[in-house]
């Protein structure tokens, strides 16, 4: 299987791996196709709604690591509304593509970011236009990512 240089770079040196203490929002999702798990933490400025920090942890494959690394880089510094435009398609383009059998791996980051935004919105009693309830959110304690 052939990976782009950018995919290999983000796989070998993933950015933003880890956790955020007292995050503004957390999202954990499972990949329906392979069963792998991803958790995303967001730190959001309460006034400007800018994502100040974003970290991830995953039990996913190399493509999941690379796409999550790129996705966290892309959402940092964006507002919660702009972050919705960071789709798996946008992440794959930023990585110069993924082999077709690995496209489903890139969905983990997008879905986990959406789940974390949903969590943030629920905690703060706000509605984020264009954000729908995550299908596969796994609640705290049910997933084995820590
Ligand atoms: Fe599961 Fe890639 S095979 S995330």
Automatic annotation (TrEMBL):
Residues spanning the membrane: none
The protein's superkingdom reads: Bacteria
Q: Give the protein name, as stated in the record.
A: Fe-S cluster assembly scaffold protein NifU
| Gene3D superfamilies xrefs | 3.90.1010.10
- Family annotation (SUPFAM superfamilies): SufE/NifU
- Cite the InterPro entries for this sequence: NIF_FeS_clus_asmbl_NifU-like, NIF_FeS_clus_asmbl_NifU_N
Spell out the Pfam families in the cross-references.
NifU_N
Which residue range or ranges hold the NIF system FeS cluster assembly NifU N-terminal domain? 2-124
């Amino acid at each position: 299987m052939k990976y782009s240089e950018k995919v290999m770079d983000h796989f070998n040196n993933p950015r933003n791996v880890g956790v955020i203490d007292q995050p503004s929002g957390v999202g954990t999702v499972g990949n329906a196709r392979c069963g792998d798990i991803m958790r995303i933490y967001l730190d959001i400025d309460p006034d400007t709604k800018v994502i100040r920090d974003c970290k991830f942890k995953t039990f996913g494959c190399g493509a999941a690591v690379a796409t999550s690394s790129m996705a966290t880089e892309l959402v940092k510094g964006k507002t919660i509304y702009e972050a919705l435009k960071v789709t798996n398609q946008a992440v794959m383009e930023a990585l110069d593509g993924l082999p077709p059998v690995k496209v489903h791996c890139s969905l983990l980051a997008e879905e986990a970011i959406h789940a974390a935004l949903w969590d943030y919105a629920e905690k703060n009693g706000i509605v984020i236009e264009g954000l729908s309830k995550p299908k596969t959110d796994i609640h705290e304690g049910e997933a084995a990512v820590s």
